[in-house]
Design goal:
Helix content is 26%, strand content 28%. It has helices at residues 11-24, 42-45, 95-109, 124-132; strands at residues 2-5, 52-58, 61-70, 78-86, 114-119, 136-138, 152-157. The chain has a single domain, classed as Aminopeptidase (3-Layer(aba) Sandwich). With 159 residues, it is an alpha+beta fold. The chain contains four helices and seven strands, in the order βααβββαβαββ. α3 links the parallel β4 (78-86) and β5 (114-119). It is globular.
């Protein structure tokens, strides 16, 4: 398995992978990443300045991914760790840690001061990974992500 930047040819497979994980996790279809328009055109969505999306690839299969982008309608010094999801076969192999390191390294290179994330209460493994990497809980959402069904908000100071 390798982690690399998204390519346009990944769009269809990635959309299927991300929706599959969201369904598995019981994520509501409304007010979450499930309904995000960019799920079907992730390559294009991450071509904006200060953005990147990485995928986990095994042979030709897309097993997951994660990205960094400026927080929508938020402080320009804040980025968001976005759409970090993995199929079961990619979990518990250290890929989440590698992915978060790549994303945070990119965020620092882009001179972001904070990294924000939204998640679901049942995604405890993800929350533990975020905490291990310096994220802490906050009691309010930030920006205008449209993810009104995500009640867990975390942030990390980048330095």
């Amino acid at each position: 398995m390798i982690i690399r930047a998204i390519q346009i040819r990944d769009d269809k497979k990635l959309a299927i992978t991300l929706r599959k994980v969201l369904i598995e996790m019981g994520v509501p279809k409304k007010g979450t990443a499930y309904e995000d328009v960019e799920l079907d055109s992730m390559y294009k969505s991450y071509q904006i300045p200060r953005s990147i999306y990485f995928v986990v690839v095994s042979e030709e299969a897309i097993l997951g991914g994660a990205g960094i982008a400026p927080l929508k309608n938020g402080d320009p010094s804040v980025c968001e760790l976005q759409k970090m999801y993995f199929l079961p076969e990619a979990r518990h192999k250290g890929l989440g840690q590698q992915m978060i390191e790549k994303c945070l390294e990119f965020a620092k290179e882009q001179n972001f001061k904070h990294c924000y994330i939204e998640t679901m209460p049942n995604m405890l493994d993800a929350q533990n990974l975020y905490k291990k990497n310096g994220f802490y809980y906050i009691n309010h959402s930030m920006g205008a992500t449209g993810h009104t069904s995500c009640p867990i908000w975390m942030i990390k100071e980048l330095s």
